[in-house]
What we know:
single chain
Amino acid sequence: MPHSPGRDRTVVDLPAGRLRGANEGGVAVFRAVPYAAPPVGDLRWRPAQPHAGWTGTRDATADGPSAPQMYVEGGDPVLGGHGSPPFDEDCLTLNLWTPAADDARRPVLIWIHGGGFVSGSGSLPGYSGETFARDGDLVVVSINYRIGPLGYLYPGDEESEGAGNFWLTDQLAALHWVRENIAAFGGDPDRVTVAGQSGGAVSTAALAGHPQAEGLIRRVILQSPPFGLDLPVPAAYLERTAAYLELAGAKDLAELRTLPWPELIGAGGALFGQTMRWGYWPTPFLPVIDGVTLSCHPARALLGEAAAGIDVMIGWTREEANFGFALDEGYAAATREQVTDRIAETFGSEAAEGVYAAYERARPGARPADVLMDLITDELFRVPAVRLAEARAAAGSPVWAYQFDLPTPAYEGRLGAAHCLELPFVFDNFDQWSHAPFLTGLAPAVRDGLAYAMHRAWIAFVRTGDPNHPDLPQWQPYDTRSRTTMRFDSVVSALDDLAGASRLLHHPVTA
């Protein structure tokens, strides 16, 4: 139970020790709370281990270090950066926001950041849980976990017992921490929603169907999950591990454990160059289907019996791939022949011209680069998401689908409704995204109105499993007849089979 001398709702007693947080904007906030032991030294590339606890009162008023990752001063031209120093391997901590550390047993939202498996932080200002805690009377938890080579390298040696996915062991540890401790912060351990975006949505799906998470998750929100990724099995991933070892100048895992983490991150950056393929989203590190920590693709996990009763919301942005390709001058100069050849890798050479023509008709005046970006959006995000919605609906499992359609005027509109653009709308905290170039030029009235609609829908879903609220058009669950999909744009509307053209192009047998 919370310790509250003099009704101090920012001091909490946990089995691990006492925490002192802070009051920020009327919300109690606890930062850099350890949920597992620091994965350093001999614990590098080992599953997350329990934290030993602490004596006295631990100060929880300042963010801890983020997971080690590549960093460029000034950030990127879309997000303006997705993680900033300090970085440290001792990063297995979480931030928590609550209206009060009392016994109210509020619904709980756990946020898992994305970042292509190589970047991001649970303590990024844009991922602050303050708006959800205040507006929805929720307890919000945002986690840090190992990313890049420290979280996604597959060692494949006897020392690791053939296991990988250390990122997943971190997240499972955080989930169990929430189960054991959230009541002390005013949360209900039986009403937990896990939400994530991009790579964080892959994590969310992996947790939802995981045997070690059974009974711990009531609902999931999957924002732009790249379920179209072909996840490797150990034999395939070991080739990438060998390339990484060579880049790091190490002969085995034992030698890697002696290197400082900046060298490991540098070698990970070099791996980008070795693994990039023209017309594909770059992913030097991936989850591995190792049969130990992860038995199947996370999208399949959501179709298993363990996840059948979990409420699911899933969605994508209309032009996901524009995030990574629209501002690249090399792709802007792509030819029809290049894009047709890329299409042939998916559809076969005989169908490639017809598929190109179908994409061209769907976007009048499309350049080859536009066709390519629409193809990548469909392959990696939209079509796999629709496939999951179809399968869950056919099985009678609850699922809600949406598409984020509002284009940004930034960069003369070239980004469209790109990957990540829905994030500040979901959190409804644009003041925390002032550094992000992709929000430039959005009309405040449209921006704020859409954010209100989305933010309240997410709150409603976390609280009840139904995203409907009075300021939203009626949103029906996705089924295999109407295929209702909520379209979030300057006008919000529920449409039937919004992704039908993509669905039929990629999977005509499901018509």
